[in-house]
Specification:
Length: 434
């Protein structure tokens, strides 16, 4: 086979066989296929698309490029969760202890934030001593002992995704449904769980800007899962405004703890309970999703999920004292209010603009490898549909300096748009794809 023929086939909209896809991905890993050829092929895939069978074959080839964790010794069902990325998205920190406290082990590999969306690993690293880099043995031992592990994605699982993703980033080929679906699912399959719930974010602060695009991606990932024996369900959730109140690493950890205390923001609680109840149902711990939601609500009310979170933090080397005293988390020295210059109803809160402002203030990275400040970020005080009076505080900026706070204040203010008419609060959960 020749790389140029495979590129030409895709250029001319021909379906690639499993053998061609395997050959191409193996060639990428061995260096026989060059970066220029991969770039050309990615663009052809991006423009021409892939049939479901090709996407499944591409996913399988990416899984085969590395190791696959065997979690069968943990129990009959290990759960996993994935978010396509959003602003203020701390759901893993709520869903994992909830589900684990209800008796379903959760083994999850997570990412760092990149671009305007945050990452769970960065959030967890706000906790003093918390270890996110675990070996495969440590990963297994922790999930066996505690019922939860959340670790950084290791480079030996689906390494072809690492190579492809880096090239996609510089060749304008990230926004391709088969490439996104195979990238996410190859990592989920390699991480070894039996069932995964996919939180597909929809809206201005998400990869998928429309409900239709999100549904198509969710269906593609569910079908790939089915093909390889990984149960997958997707929850389409709103990202037209940040999730919860807090955006920024330590601030989001605080909000997750508040939520596990039963004092969380309504949208975060609803998304977390929905994701968690699908995992419980998939694991066979409830006869229906509604019954699973009732189980999780009583787990939350009993304080068991907060205890599980404490156990999890300690098992990964973290100092759990912040759970009782949140001021022990990194605190930014400067706090500045952003006030509203008019009265009205909140019509929209540009999640992407807030996410970009969080990068600007140091909570996220502009490019991979940048260092971040765990203490900084924003706490919003309004949601879409709320009424605000002139002079009311829209948000509090937590910054390293007054200068940094001043620099982002205009972006935070303009992220909020107001109207005189009453506005309906948007739903947090849009659709379930199963
Ligand atoms: N997340 C991933 O892991 N891969 C993509 O391609 C997009 C989002």
């Amino acid at each position: 086979m020749r790389a140029a023929d495979i590129i030409a086939a895709k250029r001319d909209s021909r379906e690639l066989s499993a053998e061609e896809i395997n050959w191409f991905i193996s060639g990428i890993m061995s260096g026989h296929v060059t970066d220029d050829q991969v770039g050309a092929w990615l663009m052809a895939v991006c423009i021409r698309g892939m049939a479901p069978r090709e996407t499944a074959d591409l996913t399988r080839a990416m899984v085969a490029s590395g190791k696959r964790l065997d979690l069968s010794s943990v129990g009959p069902f290990v759960a996993d969760k994935h978010s396509t990325g959003g602003v203020g998205d701390k759901t893993t920190l709520v869903v994992a202890p909830l589900v684990a406290a209800a008796g379903v082990p959760v083994g999850k590999m997570s990412g760092r934030g990149l671009g305007f969306s945050g990452g769970t690993i960065d959030k967890l690293e706000s906790i003093r001593g918390f270890k996110t880099q675990l070996s495969a043995d440590e990963f297994l031992e922790t999930v066996r002992k505690v019922g939860i592990v959340v670790a950084a994605q290791t480079s030996d699982l689906a390494p072809a995704d690492g190579v492809l993703y880096k090239l996609r980033d510089v060749t304008a080929t990230v926004e391709s449904l088969p490439l996104i679906a195979s990238s996410i699912m190859s990592k989920k399959i390699a991480a070894g769980a039996n069932g995964v719930v996919l939180d597909v974010k929809v809206g201005k602060g998400a990869f998928m800007k429309t409900h239709e695009q999100a549904r198509e991606l969710a269906e593609a990932m569910r079908d790939i899962g089915r093909d390889v024996g990984l149960q997958a369900r997707a929850v389409l959730s709103g990202m037209d405004q940040p999730l919860g109140w807090a955006v920024g690493n330590a601030l989001e950890i605080k909000e997750a703890v508040q939520t596990l205390r039963g004092e969380g923001p309504g949208d975060l609680v609803e998304v977390a309970l929905t994701l968690g109840s699908h995992l419980l149902h998939m694991a066979g711990k409830a006869n229906s999703v509604d019954e699973a939601a009732d189980v999780l609500r009583s787990v939350l009310d009993s304080g068991k999920s907060l205890s599980k979170f404490r156990e999890f933090v300690e098992a990964q080397g973290g100092d759990s004292a912040f759970i009782d005293d949140p001021d022990l988390l990194p605190n930014a020295p400067v706090q500045r209010e952003v006030t509203s210059s008019s009265s009205g109803y909140i019509a929209s809160i540009d999640a992407e603009a807030i996410g970009r402002a969080s990068v600007e203030i140091g909570a996220g990275r502009a490019v991979k490898g940048d260092s971040i400040d765990h203490s900084v970020g924003f706490v919003l005080h309004y949601k879409i549909g709320d009424r605000v009076e002139r002079g009311g505080s829209l948000a509090t900026i937590h910054a390293a300096s007054s200068k940094a706070a001043e620099a982002v204040a205009p972006s935070i203010e303009t992220a909020f748009s107001l109207t005189r008419e009453q506005v309906q609060a948007p739903p947090s959960v849009l659709e379930i794809v199963q």
